[in-house]
Specification:
Helices cover 35% and strands 27% of the residues. By secondary structure, the chain is α/β, with parallel strands linked by helices.
């Protein structure tokens, strides 16, 4: 049986005041399993990014409990929660968020310095630059890289600390199709090596990389789908199956 790395219980998230209260997440119960590539989909405004931010400890739910890696977050101090965010989970943003005054190498080593020696961090960064075919931009600043290169650097930065769970919010949303495919190929390879991934996307091609798809509507999980193994299906058949699932949920 797979290990549960995140357990969300009755998660609610509200915005606004008593006169104008907006219920974004409504009593969500969810388990995320180790080694899974979980994809969260839904129409605009369904609450998918809000859910991702809650699961990744980037934001606190209004109500409910989140257990991450076996620990109840409500019983942890702010410092302990920050420690989990720094050392055990990582987040990849759609808008990339690289530090503009640091080179590719420096962007990757920056978070790694918090968890390992400078030598180990530099060695790890160089290994990732080679793995992601980024050696040519090692000394370049983000402004001198393509969008695809920037996103690959962001992924390298996110996994430099060997996180237990990798979160991604629309990681291909700002990329062209070729750069997007490169990023998704990296995600697929990471998952094959055992990396647990939780990704929000609106792109059906990105969605096909997951082995579990959750569909949100009006702040609730209303559908769940397990595509067949990638190696046993053609890409078109996989897309057709997922599209049918999404269509059934009024995507």
């Amino acid at each position: 049986m797979k290990k549960v790395v995140i357990k969300a219980e009755k998660i609610c998230k509200d915005y606004g005041n008593k006169e104008n209260l907006h219920h974004v997440l409504k009593n969500i119960d969810l388990d995320i399993y180790e080694g899974d590539f979980t994809v969260i989909m839904g129409s605009s405004g369904s609450g998918k990014s809000t859910l991702l931010y809650a699961l990744s400890l980037m934001d606190q739910p209004t109500k409910g409990n989140i257990h991450i890696l076996g620990t109840d977050i409500s019983k942890m101090s702010e410092n302990d929660v920050s420690e989990v965010r720094r050392k055990r989970i990582s987040f990849i943003f759609q808008n990339i968020n690289l530090l503009p005054d640091l080179t590719a190498l420096e962007n990757i080593t920056y978070p790694a310095y918090l968890t390992m020696s400078k030598k180990d961090a530099n060695d790890k960064a160089m290994e990732l630059l080679r793995q992601f075919n980024l050696e040519e931009v090692k000394d370049k600043y983000p402004g001198n890289m393509s969008g695809g290169q920037q996103q690959r650097v962001a992924i390298a930065r996110a996994i430099a600390t060997d996180p237990d769970i990798l979160f991604a919010d629309e990681p291909t949303g700002a990329l062209n199709s070729a750069a997007g495919k490169q990023v998704l190929d990296l995600f697929t390879e990471l998952n094959k090596k055992g990396q647990s991934i939780v990704m929000v996307t609106h792109d059906i091609k990105a969605c096909t990389r997951g082995n579990r798809i959750l569909y949100l509507s009006d702040g609730q999980i209303v559908g769940e789908f397990y595509p067949g193994p990638n190696k046993l299906q053609s890409q078109q058949k996989r897309e057709d199956e997922i599209f049918q699932f999404l269509k059934e949920h009024h995507w």
